[in-house]
Amino acid sequence: MRRKLAAGNWKMNGLCADLAEIEALAAAPAPTQTDRLICPPATLIARAARIAPGAIAIGGQECHAMNAGAHTGDISAPMLADAGASYVILGHSERRQDHMESDADVRAKARAAHEAGLTTLICVGETLAERDAANTLDIIGGQLSGSVPDHGTGENLVIAYEPIWAIGTGRTATPEQIGEVHDFIRARLERRFGAGVGRSVRLLYGGSVKPANADTIFAVSNVDGALVGGASLRAADFGAIIAAL
Ligand code: PEP
């Protein structure tokens, strides 16, 4: 039985005052079957991790593949763990686009993150042009093989399916589109890691998830939660999404 996961990606948003949103989330009754995760900007991780340890998990949005060294501006997986993070998002489409991250980069970062004891939330997703060309499953299959390291388990790996055309656009994939891709990802994981591990990895959907559409998305097979951008910034909205899980 997979636990649900509601993950908030604050992206490059959030000042110290916004930690009040995590405090407000923590003040709400804790859901029994759902893990809650906030990935704030790196500047807030250490403070965020002290707000509700054990109740609201904290994650990074990215890490370097090396543990330390001459990499100005980068943050390593052991640094994230040291600051109190237990998760890290890797391969988000904004990183793949803005920082030219390849599947091989994501895989190397994931290896480093696992060694540091972090759970990786690895993102995959197609562009609109790829979907229109009926290439969605090929793209997702390639990203899974290239980005996910060999030692994935139900504990250290979460996959987020995020169609790029649905991120921050207000457009969500239809339940049929989400179901097709999530079933495909599940089958691929089972084939690669065996049924036990393949069935234990949690699959999140991301792309304009809001309180108003969360119920419909969470009813889709193999959707174990959501990776939420804009609607995770305010506790009221994110709390409503969590309640729908
Ligand atoms: C995201 O950034 O991963 C995301 C899904 O953003 P939004 O919910 O704003 O579309």
TrEMBL record:
Gene3D superfamilies: Aldolase class I. Belongs to the triosephosphate isomerase family. This is Triosephosphate isomerase. Homodimer. One of its GO terms (cellular component) is cytosol. Pathway: Carbohydrate metabolism; erythritol degradation; Carbohydrate biosynthesis; gluconeogenesis; Carbohydrate degradation; glycolysis; D-glyceraldehyde 3-phosphate from glycerone phosphate: step 1/1. It catalyses: L-erythrulose 1-phosphate = D-erythrulose 4-phosphate; D-glyceraldehyde 3-phosphate = dihydroxyacetone phosphate. Keywords: Cytoplasm, Gluconeogenesis, Glycolysis, Isomerase. HAMAP family: TIM_B (MF_00147_B).
